[in-house]
Structures are given as C-alpha cells and as structure tokens.
Amino acid sequence: MTAPGFEPNDMMGMQQEAIRRVQEMQERARRTMGLDPENAAAPPPMPEPPQGFTPPMPDPGPELPTGAPPSKPKQDHEKTLITLLLLILMAENASPELIFSLLYLL
C-alpha cells in the first residue's frame, strides 16, 4: 500500500537522490577542510536495496472529513470561557479573591 501521489519507483528515486546529495556534501566538506580526497577515508558504499523491496510508509493517521476544520481540544474552550468570565467580573469590580481563584484555573 502506497501513500496517495507516491509510487514505489518515486520513493526509490528519492532515496537515491538523498544518497547522491549526502555524497556531494561530504565531498564539499573534505575540500573545505583541505583534505586530499584520495587520502581521505571514503565512507563505505550504501548497499542497494533488494529487488522488489518497498520501503514501509508511515501511517497517515485518521482521515479528516473534507472541508471540516480540525476541532479544538476541550481545554481551549474552557480557557476561553474562564477568560471571558474574568473580563466580565473585572469590569463589574468583583472581589479580588474570586478573580484570583479563576486565574488559578487557567
């Protein structure tokens, strides 16, 4: 099973491209450090994956319904309500003990 939009050949191509980039960066690092590429210890070559090997794909997780925004956690709603209540009570000059007790809940 592959992720939508990805083919197994694409994944192999991306892996080979990543290996090529790593090798290029190592070569640049050797040149920057002034190391002689002939005397520098070359990293062992990357083994080729077995024929027909398909790398495992990460689990994409549950799918959200299209067009529906993700729901906020319950805790965010509670904090919003407590904050609004605090604003109202402060505007009404409520007792400081009540205000501080609500602040503690946040």
Offer a concise description of the structure.
It is built from 3 helices and no strands. It has helices at 8-32, 74-91, 96-105. The chain is elongated, with a radius of gyration of 29 Å.
Structural summary, described in words:
The chain has three helices and no strands. The chain is an all-alpha fold and 106 residues long. Helix 2 runs antiparallel to helix 3. The mean pLDDT is 75.
List the helices and strands and how they pair.
Blueprint lengths: L7 H25 L41 H18 L4 H10 L1
Helix pairs in contact: 2-3
Strand content: under 5%
What is the distance, rounded to the nearest whole angstrom, between the alpha carbons of the first and last residues? 45 Å
Return the string of H and E elements. Answer: HHH
Q: How many extended strands?
A: 0
Rg over CA atoms = 29 Å
What labels would you give this structure?
single chain; 106 residues; mainly alpha; 3 helices; elongated
